[in-house]
Design brief:
The protein is an alpha+beta fold and 514 residues long. The chain has one domain. It is 15% helix and 28% strand. A hairpin with an 8-residue loop joins strand 20 and strand 21. The termini are far apart.
Length: 514
């Protein structure tokens, strides 16, 4: 029988993020769904053909529009693309870098640490990810040509296996006031023509109301095996043995943000988050952005927002992260989980949880007696994720399976034209959630099953569920129950339902007729 830990590691291969493939999923030859930025914009007031997306309409740009709406009225970057560049390799180390924090606020300094394989000049171009009339990003800054040199080899903590760089800063721009809160990508370009991406977030601590989109940087780092050079790199899943083979036995017990992301620099599965950002910013919805570490440290307060949206694979949560989100829900802030397998591992950060650059999760077994170790599953610690999300991880999905509609008369599906039993293809993918028997469900004023979809894992039948419940505080909590949800937003029915949900939780508006 395969043990639970082995199952967890086996699923990494299923998702295409084993070894070097994980870091370069956008360039690896994997079959990636079309970017959500190319999906038709959903008109929330469209009342025509219920099977279509409705006519494309311009973003609202009136005075008083949310900052993200005003931002997306700016010209996008012509020819922006994530792929197609000549990317550096971890083995060659042609160029690589990282920034000093997962997020920064306007007025703060942004510090870039960059290393090149041999002395040469390089420059950094910064883009903000968004819709921008389908261009996908806007260029916000370009560095001067900088004098690059090789920096020190990373250190490896003998106790935890954490790989950490101590590179000196080579460019430190100040975040300008007009850098709207969002997901940013910095493109390194060396004189030899090699490139690598560096992601970071600009947060807006003063922003209230609207939706707070939390990007899963703790999970991004958990999968990061930089440098994938056959010697040094380690993630919370894998490391290299003395023969240069990548194995689960040599995984790290902690991972550091003070290092580049492997491969092209786009974190594993971050294409889900990038696609969602491009899609949601076409909808005219008031959103701001934050990271896992912002929740952990309290740099953002989710209770100041009408809703908190978790768009991607958000598996690694600390106690302060969970407490902040549960407290916000108790005060009426809605929660939207558009992925699956959320809040699965209980993590800590560096010494006394104050160093938010080091993610700690040893993935230990539950002891027979005594205090519970930090790095175990939340459900093993007696706090199952289902207790506040309403559903939790059940299985990896073999291939793709269609989403099977339930509760079609609910406002969630209004304007989509669906009926119970209808299928939306290829939504159930990667991993799936359900409301699992044997675990407590959250108290709810109302609860609705919106989809229940059969799929298979290793030949055995399983089922996925999409759930929505409302708390007595008035907060809505939605669990998509599949990693494939945001990948499938090109389907107009799924897009319309997602807009229905976001408009309900952000503005209180909702369509009521199907």
């Amino acid at each position: 029988m395969v043990g639970r830990g082995e199952i967890r590691h086996t699923r990494r291969a299923t998702l295409g993020i084993l070894g070097a493939v994980g870091a370069v999923i956008l360039d690896s030859g994997c079959q990636v769904r079309p970017p959500a930025a190319t999906a038709p914009r959903v008109d929330p007031n469209y009342v025509g053909d219920p099977t279509g997306p409705g006519p494309a309409t311009p973003l609202l740009r009136a005075a008083g529009s949310p900052p993200v709406v005003v931002e997306n009225a700016r010209p996008g970057a012509s020819g922006f693309r994530l792929t197609g560049h000549r990317f550096a390799t971890d083995r060659g180390g042609e160029i690589a870098g990282y920034v000093h924090a997962t997020s920064v606020a306007p007025g703060e300094e942004l510090r870039f640490q960059v290393s090149v394989a041999r002395p040469q000049r390089y420059r950094i171009t910064i883009f903000r990810v968004g819709h921008y009339d389908g261009r996908g990003a806007r260029q916000v800054a370009v560095s001067p040509w900088l004098d690059g040199s090789p920096q020190a080899a990373p250190t490896v903590d003998p106790a935890t296996g954490a790989v950490r760089c101590g590179w000196r800063t080579q460019w430190r721009p100040t975040v300008a006031p007009d850098w709207t809160s969002g997901l940013y990508l910095a493109l390194l370009a060396s004189a030899t023509g090699h490139h690598q991406w560096i992601p970071f977030v600009v947060r807006d601590p003063g922003r209230a109301r609207g939706a707070l989109v939390v990007l899963p940087t703790s999970t991004w780092q958990a999968y990061n095996c930089w440098p994938e050079d056959g010697r040094t790199g380690a993630s919370l899943y894998y490391g290299f043995d003395s023969a240069g083979q990548i194995t689960t036995k040599h995984r790290a017990r902690a991972v550091s943000h003070d290092r580049p992301y492997a491969g092209n620099g786009v974190p594993a599965l971050a294409d889900h988050d990038i696609g969602f950002v491009q899609w949601v910013e076409a909808q005219g919805i008031d959103v701001a952005y934050a990271t896992s570490e912002d929740l952990h440290t309290g740099r953002v307060d989710p209770a100041r927002h009408r809703a908190v949206v978790f768009p991607g694979h958000d598996e690694y949560w600390s106690t302060p992260m969970r407490e902040a989100v549960v407290t916000a829900r108790g005060g009426g802030t809605s929660l939207v989980f558009l992925g699956a397998n959320n809040c699965y591992w209980r993590i800590g950060y560096g010494a006394d949880d104050h160093d938010d650059r080091l993610v700690r999760c040893a993935k230990e077994k539950t002891p027979a007696s005594g205090p519970l170790p930090l790095g175990i599953m939340w459900r093993s610690a007696g706090h199952a994720e289902q207790q506040f999300i309403g559903a939790q991880y059940v299985s990896v999905v073999d291939g793709y399976a269609p989403l099977v509609i339930r509760g079609s008369r609910h406002w969630f599906w209004a304007g989509t034209g669906v009926r119970d039993g209808d299928l939306i293809p290829e939504v159930v993918w990667g991993e799936a959630d359900q409301c699992m028997p044997g675990f407590a469900e959250p108290p709810a004023a109302e609860r609705t099953l919106l989809a229940e979809s059969p799929f298979r894992r290793d030949g055995a039948p399983q089922r996925q569920q999409s759930q929505l419940y409302r708390t007595t505080s008035g907060a809505w909590v939605f669990a998509a129950g599949s990693l494939g949800w945001t990948r499938a937003l090109a389907d107009p029915r799924l897009a319309q339902a997602t807009v229905n949900l976001l408009r309900r939780v952000v503005t209180g508006e909702a369509r009521t007729s199907t």
